[in-house]
Fold this sequence. Notes:
- The complex is a heterodimer of chains A (about 230) and B (about 325).
- Chain A is an alpha/beta fold and about 230 residues long.
- Chain A has a domain at about 1-80 and about 195-235: P-loop containing nucleotide triphosphate hydrolases (Rossmann fold), CATH 3.40.50.
- Helices cover about 35% and strands about 25% of the residues of chain A.
- Chain A has helices spanning about 45-50, 75-80, 100-110, 115-125, 145-155, 175-190, 200-205, 225-234; strands at about 5-15, 20-30, 35, 60-65, 65-70, 85, 160-165, 190-195, 210-215, 215-220.
- In chain A, the strands form two sheets. Chain A has a six-stranded mixed sheet, sandwiched between helices. In chain A, strands 2-1-4-5 form a four-stranded antiparallel sheet, with helices on one face.
- In chain A, strand 4 (about 60-65) and strand 5 (about 65-70) form a beta hairpin.
- With about 325 residues, chain B is α+β, with helices and mostly antiparallel strands.
- Chain B is about 70% helix and about 5% strand.
- Chain B has helices at about 20-40, 45-80, 95-105, 115-130, 130-135, 155-165, 180-220, 225-230, 235-280, 290-315; strands spanning about 85, 110-115, 145-150, 170-175.
- The longest helix of chain B has about 45 residues, at about 235-280.
- The two termini of chain B are about 25 Å apart.
- The chains are: A alpha/beta (about 230), B alpha+beta (about 325).
- The interface between A and B is large, with 48 and 32 residues.
Amino acid sequence: MADIIHFHRVSHRYDGGPQIISDVSFTLGKGEMAFLTGPSGAGKSTLLRLTALLARATAGQVVVEGKNLADIKRSQIPAFRRQIGVIFQNPSLLNERTVFDNVALPLLIRGHSGDDIGRRVRAALDAVGLLPKEKAFPLTLSGGEQQRVGIARAVVAKPPLLLADEPTGNLDPQLAMDVMALFMRFNEVGVSVLVATHAISLISRLPHRVIHIEKGTLEERRKAELMDKTHDFS
Amino acid sequence: MTSAKPAKPGPKRVAHQPSWLEKMTQDHVRAISGTLSALARRPIGTLLTAFVIGITLALPAGLNTLVANLGQAGDSLQGSLRASLFLNDDVSAERGAELAHDITRRPGVSSARYISREQALEEFRTFSGFGEALDILKDNPLPATIVVTPSAKQPQARTEALLKDLGTLPEVAQAKLDEKWLQRLYAILDLVQRAVMMIAGALALAVLIVVGNTIRLDIENRRDEIEVMKLIGAPNSYIRRPFLYTGLWYGLTGGILACLLVQAGVMSLVQPARQLAGLYDSQATLQGLSLNAAAGVFAAGLGLGWLGAFWAVSRHLRHIEPAI
């Protein structure tokens, strides 16, 4: 299986700051779904930022979809980002636009026609169970619903890769499970998914690979260990 | 979350791929309607900005109209320009009147009127206010004159040639065209025109700054939106487009307002201008902005609006990066 994400001995520090991640290597296969875990500040977000070219590695190589990100010029970044759906803990919706218009954004920038946009947006909203809310404004929705609007926006243009940063951080366990199930459904239709989360108890029941990062370095864990750790905490 | 397969790829995908041109047209139509409705949602702010631009553009446009009118008035006065032929003192009144009659029939002459020495003295006494000073003199110092009005529609050179011709008549001591003050008027107009150009340059810069600053604030207000746009991979041209159109609309409304302001100013000046022209025996009426000038004001508004927006966008947009 070809890799969709390949990190080779990647380090990163923000300008003048301490090293956030150092010498990290890992891969995510095409069509694979994996979880990225670790305590807050361990470098999970930075790893996702490097993947979406929101930051550049200070050392090492990041290859996404066969492209070395160091070779992507500033002017090519938009085209690169259109291949990736990104989801945050804070869904960062545009509050003065309806749910429909928020989800339509990625299609608008790609120049889809009006009919096409309507069809695809409704399909995406249907997938996250928010079709009846298409005319609502984000601030009238619950946290979980907002998060799902963000997910619909990330998947509406069918990118081959989904990155999610703490997508369940604000949600209660049941809603969090729903969101994870949603990601798994996207994964089933061929989308590669990388989810950063510290909801270890939630993902321990899932069959996917777990990449653990601590103090900027990486270790792959078996779920049993994670379970032990959860028990330690509880 | 009820439905089965999310965002299913496959045969349902729509086959029609819009061409580049269709996409471009569609993008622009969306940007145009989007920006227009955004501006319409805050009409006061939009109108205020447009008014600032309008007044700034109206100033040079109005001055330019004024200069054009004065130039035209000068031209029309030149048409009714009069030459004075001062006759030798030994020419009799009868001969003078006869000569005037002859001159009238020459080509290029509209009319010629004989003024005898006595008439000249009377006119001078009446109009100059130096009547009493004249009484001191023993003799009448004024020569007899034939006032020649060249026909209006001939070029300056023909008029001058005619005058030179008339100057060689044996009865004529001196021929004089009263054009000095006209030449002065043209020199002043030239000076004013240059000053208007300079003012226009400075005010164009002012329009750029007004639009640039308005767009900069607009960018600041929509920072979140721009971050999201960049995050989902919107091309820079796509993010730029609405701001550039907004600048265009400001410039366009500013241009329209400038034309209206100048037109209103001209209309309020028509009556006094007609009176003034009447005093000079001129038929000239005050002209508003010519079609060319109005087109120029529109073009300046549009161009400066776009340029101001482009300036703001290229300075501020690149510094906004999505933060997660």
